[in-house]
């Protein structure tokens, strides 16, 4: 009888792990993870160039992002590096998609998690000049991965169809069509 109970418990745990879904992450854990990301990421913008921020992301992506998101981010960064027109051709070249701003605030606050499909969305609020945040500027989608919680996407709170991962990947295809190798 104990063997059946143990086997049942293992099957449930394995199914949760395989689903990579929100069942494996508590809402509080998701908020803490997203807040740690922003506490690490925001000060990077105070460095001399924004490229430093993205270089730091590229070196530390395994700590924060899912493999699919990493691939999309690297594609976007490569798009801007390869462009010879001098135009801004990438999402990350146009604005900071993780802060949804060209002029970021000094601090960001993660809160208000909610379950969506197999993930959790955590709202991120800018805190500018010490003023209380009024509305979220970013929704961070997190899910359980092989190495723990990972960011799988960023979304715009005002646009239910927004999908940063898709936009980052799309820019690469656009550049390939503009500048074939």
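Sequence proposed for the structure above (181 residues):
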């Amino acid at each position: 009888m104990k063997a059946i109970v143990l086997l049942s418990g293992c099957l449930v745990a394995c199914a949760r792990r395989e689903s990579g879904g929100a069942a494996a992450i508590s809402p509080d854990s998701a908020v803490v993870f997203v807040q740690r990301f922003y506490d690490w990421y925001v000060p990077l913008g105070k460095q001399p160039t924004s490229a430093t921020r993205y270089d730091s992301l590229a070196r530390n992506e395994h700590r924060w992002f899912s493999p699919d998101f990493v691939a999309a981010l690297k594609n976007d960064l490569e798009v801007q590096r390869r462009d010879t027109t001098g135009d801004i051709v990438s999402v990350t070249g146009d604005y900071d998609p993780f802060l949804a701003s060209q002029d970021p605030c000094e601090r960001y606050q993660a809160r208000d998690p909610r379950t969506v499909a197999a993930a959790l969305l955590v709202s991120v609020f800018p805190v500018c000049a010490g003023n209380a945040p009024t509305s979220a500027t970013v929704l961070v989608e997190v899910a359980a991965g092989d190495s723990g919680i990972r960011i799988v996407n960023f979304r715009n709170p005002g646009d239910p169809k927004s999908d940063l991962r898709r936009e980052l990947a799309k820019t690469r295809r656009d550049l390939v069509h503009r500048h074939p190798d």
